Amino acid sequence: MYQKDFIPIVLKVKFKSEEPIAIEKWKQLIGDLFLGYAQRITEKGDCFIGHIKALADISEFSYIKFSCINALAGVNSEFHGELQSNCKINMVINSLVTNMSNHESRKLLNQSWLLTINQEENIKMQIEDETPDTLEEHHHHHENEPCPICENKHHIH
Predict the structure, then answer these.
(1) In b/e form, how buried is each residue of 135-148, taking b as 16+ CB within 10 angstroms?
(2) What is the CATH T-level fold of the domain 7-132, as seen in this structure?
(3) Whose CB among 14, 48, 96, 146 lies 3.0–4.6 Å from 6's, allowing a Cys bridge?
(4) What pTM was estimated for this model as a whole?
């Protein structure tokens, strides 16, 4: 498997709670979401995780890092900053996975959220797409030229 086989996907995710939630709880909740997401990808069978990582902003100087290379290895997470409680968290997910579209990635993340969240907690998740519509934009080549990165394997024509 070559690096050119991995499709980069960037998702901006916003979490919102009606009540402040302790950082340890956010870390556990997002870690469970991340693991569920990796498991959904692995269950597809034809997808291979290169690396999925995320940075959850807590405040100007506080954040949580998440990283996963496969569902069996689990999710690594690390908090940096001051312990506090928050109602809102903004997170960016960078995903390198084979055979997965942006739309499919969003769908699996949403499914994982539904399996992770306890509805009584009333925490909302919103996904905003940060990935360009076409990989031509990412690879920076002209429309009529062959892609030097993926040899046109991942382009929609």
Answers:
(1) bbebbebeeeeebe
(2) Alpha-Beta Plaits (3.30.70)
(3) 96
(4) 0.78
3-state DSSP helix/strand/coil % of the chain, to nearest 5? 30, 35, 35
Show the tokens assigned to 139.
Answer: 């690879």
Task: Residue 111: name the closest of 52, 30, 33 by CA.
Answer: 33
Q: Which helix (DSSP H) or strand (DSSP E) does residue 11 occupy?
A: strand 6-22
Q: Tell me: the pLDDT tens digits for 66-98?
A: 999 988 999 999 999 999 999 999 999 999 998
Dihedral Cα 44, 128, 15, 96, nearest 10 deg: 40
Tokens 């001051």 belong to residue? 82
Domain boundaries, the chain: 7-132
Query: For residue range 32-58, what is the model confidence (pLDDT) as tens digits?
Result: 999 999 999 999 888 889 899 999 999
